[in-house]
Fold these 4 entries.
Entry 1:
Amino acid sequence: MRFEFPSRFYFITYRPGSRNGILQDVREALEAGVRIVQYREKELPLRRQLEEAAELLELCGNFGAALVVDDRVDIALAVGADGVHLGPDDMPTEIARMLLGAGKLVGVSVRGVEEALKAQEAGADYLGVGPIFPTSTKPDAGPPIGLQGLRAVRRAVHLPIVAIGGITPERARAAMEAGADAVCAISAVVGERVGEKIRAFLHQVEVRGDDPVGIRP
């Protein structure tokens, strides 16, 4: 089964920038048309993360959306989430795949072609590529790879790509034209009017023409 993004905007929760709480942010994102959500939590105790992840999974299920958990394979397994998203310092992709099984999503963050090829070989379902532009949300993300770097990754792999890092509605179209299948923004959507901001992104990227359909054989 080949994964395809069920929406052109990939939403990541971000507690430091949230004004109305994570659940409300996700609800607004889903109402705006988002169909894949990453639960990214660095602050709460494990027990509370489990509770919140379960609440988010139920909420996403009401909209037919997928929930992936950042870093924590154990939390994804415990609540029955749709998958995980892994960074360079997280559990190796091969081990996550072995634990989760073939029916769950494994996304991997990469910066360039070499990392992308390794992730593809290891069994990743999709890639988070970036930072494309300078980003304030993740200061340790490294220098931006630019649209040229995104194009290079697109040429090298067949996996779906979500572009991240400094993405704005104005830059979203360029990222899609450079080969991204979806875009993600954190600082540009957190705070107030989350849904309204996401709709501005979707207006830019959904005119690309092809219809996102989730998972296909």
Entry 2:
Amino acid sequence: MPPTAKASILHRVTGVALFFALTFVIWAWSESLSSPEGFNFVKELMTSFVAKFIAWGTFAVLSYHIIGGIRHMIQDMGHWEELESGNASANIAIALWVIVAILGGVWIWS
């Protein structure tokens, strides 16, 4: 599969994943704002491995969706439409995402 197809499919998949991941984010935000006890509950919950993994996953899909979206907008302006530059921009977007996702994981688990 060409890099441009991988990047485009990954952008769509992360969009769908964001829809579902935001249910956790909205719930945690709502619960944390409901009362001091709710805030403490969410604060304690966020120390668990599962919650940190969900937070990292949400960060990872959001970061790729933003990176891929910026790439698509640049292409909509007429850039990176040739095969070589399109493949290069797709590979760069995916590589940048991997770096950002790893750094996000380090930040969340530190």
Entry 3:
Amino acid sequence: MNKYMVLLSKGYEETEALLVVTYLRRAGIEVDTISTMDTLETLGDHDIMIKADKKWDEIHLDDYAGIITPGGMIGSETLAADSRVTKAIKDFHDAGKLVASICASPIVLHAAGIAKDIEGVCYPGMEEAVGFKKAHEEIVFFDQNVLTSRGPLTAPFFALKLIEIIKGEDARNDVAGQILLPRVQEALVGMAQGKCACGTTEGGESCCCGHHEHAEGGCCGHHKHAEGGGCGHHHH
């Protein structure tokens, strides 16, 4: 019972599903992608076809220590309407097993009847539909045995918290280093201080993208002498 499952239904958010699987496997955690559909082939919200490891009717729930649900509005609604899934989530929660939902998929927790008993987070604007005991503003929140998160860009932190819960801080920090999280955090701090995350060479070439200072482009998409891009600052 050391395995975890990521559920793939019609219209799930591919980023949230695959990023979690990738990071957990980096940490040496056994995780299966499970199709709740009639076939192993599943179609995500952005028309990306992913072949699941197993179908729902091929698994034994007792083999798993946790259930993870990615978001995507259609995918979340599909899971919430699936009585097999909602019963399993309720049973896992009652047994103290890990339950994790991100983005829109906390509505599955509502359908399972457990959202009202936990505090958590979800995609902004969906708090009423989820009906948490108390909704929070953090990007990741862990209450009892239920982990929740906000959306696609919070998925890395959702996955890292899963690793921490399952294997501890050392495993979490190891994967954080592999994915260059410390470097990204440093760059974000610099951007908050008005610095561009691209950087430029002495010759005027952008290190990350190969664009010149006087041309539009790079990862921030700004002009040397104009406002704009992801940095939103001037170089006058």
Entry 4:
Amino acid sequence: MEITVLYDNFLFLPELLPSHGFSCLIKGEEKVLFDTGESGPLLFKNLELLRIDPLSISRVVISHEHYDHIGGLGYFLAQNSNVVVYGLPSFSEATKEEIKERGGHFVEVERGMEIASSVFTTGEVDGPVKEQALVIKGEQGFLLLGGCCHPGVVRMVQAASSLVGDKIRFVMGGLHLYHSSDEEIVKTLEALRELGVEKMAPSHCSGFFALDTAQKLWKENFVSSGVGKSITW
């Protein structure tokens, strides 16, 4: 499985464009787009620079309804409506109708399920903002790909682990810790280690202190991420 960051606050490849938001492409037997960032044109520019054909994408998963994760969806559907879009029951009726009107096939996800070979959604995890994350099975075990982890990254990892019946070895994406206190951040990251998380690639809304602390805790198993980062799992 190959996971490529298409949209992020942080930049990995200098020829690409960073911006506030998040999007990744998962390449296995099918191509699955996870979130769409805020700007459709910027997302498509990065797709073009990475030589990824948007028409090759067959499934789109939206973690939650915040603008920096769903903002590019309308633009994407205008270019490629031949996709299944996995959203949540908590999405507004306006969003659900817009997806259908633009030609996308909307699937409302309540519980965890496999959406493509070795690619699972946690289903809707309750929290201050309801959210879903992806769980990806690779040769090295299970990876959690989160958009913002508003319900709490520990809770998301626990939900993912319960779904697949195994520990989550790698956590990647937004951790939503930039507003948390230093003490809360350390406690959260230590809890992830206790759950068996062996590798970390935080980005987007994680915050600089969380990135620095994760790097100290995971050392050589900390993975720098950003737009253009590609991970084989």
